[in-house]
Amino acid sequence: MALKKVLLFAIGVALTIYVVGFFGLFEVLAALAGADLALVGSAVLIQIAVLGLIVLRLKILTYGWGYLSLLKTARITMTGMVVSMVTPIAKIGGEPLKIYMLRQNIGSAHASVAVAVDSLMEVFSSIFVIFVVTVLFIGAIPQPFFTAFVLFLVISGLILGTVLKVLLTPRWMGRIIDWTVKKISRFQEVEEKDYTKLFHDAFNTMLKDRKKLAGVFAISIFSKILEIIKIWIIFLALGLALPSQTVIIAWAILLVLMFVPWLPGSLGLVEFGVASALVLLGVPGPVGASGVLVERFMSFWLVLLIGFLALSSSRKMGELPSISKSKIKISEKEKRS
C-alpha cells in the first residue's frame, strides 16, 4: 500500500511538471516571478481562514458531547485531511482515523455521527454550489466541463442518497459499525455495547438540531465563497483581473476534479484540467497555468505540510493508534488460539 501511494504521488507530480512544460516553462516562470507578493500573502491568509472554518465546523458538530479543545479539533481535522489527501483510490482514509481520535473525548457513537455529518455536509454543500453554478452559467461553461458537471451532480446525488439510506437503516448501518469496531479493536480494546443503537440515537439527535445543521451548512458555503475570492486574488497578483463569472466557473471545475479518485489530491489532474478550462475561457495559457500552480501550492502543498505537522503532533501526544501494539495483540491472540 505504501508503495502504491508513493507511485501515485509520483505520477501526480509528473503530470504537474508536464502541465508546466505544456503551457511553456519559461513563460510560466516569468508570470510567477512577476506576481505581487502582498496579494499572494493575502490569498494564503484566506486559505488558512478556510481551514479554520473546516475546523470550526467539526467543533460545532461535536459541541455538547464532551469537552474537545479547539487545538485538538484542529489536529484531528488536519490529520484526517492529510491522510485522505494521500490515500490512493478513494479519498476517505482520514474519516476512520478522525473517528478513532474523537472517540477518546466524545465516545465512538458520537464520533461516528460527527464525522459522518461533517463529510455529508461537505458533499451536500458542494453539490448545492455546483448545481447553482451550472444553472446560472449554463451557456458559459465549456462543453466538456459542462458534461463533467452533470455527471458530478448525478453521481454525487446517487452516492449521497445511498449514504443517507445506509445511515437511516439500522440493519445496514449495524454491519458498517460492527466492521468499524473490529478495525478499532485491533489498536485498542473496545467495550462491548450496542453501538448501532447508540449511533442511531446520536444521529437522530443531530438531525433534530436544525440550528446546528444550518450553522455548519452556512460555514461550508462561506468557505467555498472564500475559495472563489482566493482564486480571484491570485490572478490579480499575476496582473490579471478575471471576470467573476470566469473565476466561479474555474473554481467549480477545480471542485469537481477534486472529487475524482485515484491520484492523491487529484494532483496533476486539477492542474491540467483547470488550466485548460481557463484557456477555453479566454485566459492566456501561461498565466492560467501559473494561477493554478499558485492556488495548488496553497490548497494542496500548504495543506499537506500543515497536515503532516498535525500528524506528527498527534503521534507524539499518543492520539494515534499504535501499529506495533496492534501487531503484538494479534500475535498474542494467534498464540492463544
Gyration radius, rounded: 21 Å
Low-pLDDT residue spans:
323-337
Rounded mean pLDDT is 85
Query: Strand content of the residues, in percent?
Result: under 5%
Number of strands: 0
Number of individual domains? 1
| Helix fraction by DSSP (H/I, runs of at least 4) | over 70%
| Oligomeric status | single chain
Structural class: mainly alpha
Instruction: Report, as a whole number of angstroms, the end-to-end distance.
Output: 28 Å
Shape: globular
Q: Count of helices?
A: 14
H-E string = HHHHHHHHHHHHHH
Could you characterize what this model shows?
The protein is globular and about 60 Å long. Mean pLDDT is 85; it is low at 323-337. It contains 14 helices and no strands. The chain is mainly α. The protein is 81% helix and 0% strand. It starts with a helix and ends with a helix. Helix 3 crosses helix 13 and helix 6 packs across helix 11 (244-258). The chain has one domain (2-16, 28-320). It has helices at residues 2-22, 25-33, 37-62, 70-86, 94-106, 108-136, 143-168, 170-185, 195-208, 210-237, 244-258, 269-280, 285-316, 323-336. The longest helix has 32 residues, at 285-316.
Quick structural summary:
The chain has 337 residues and is mostly helical.
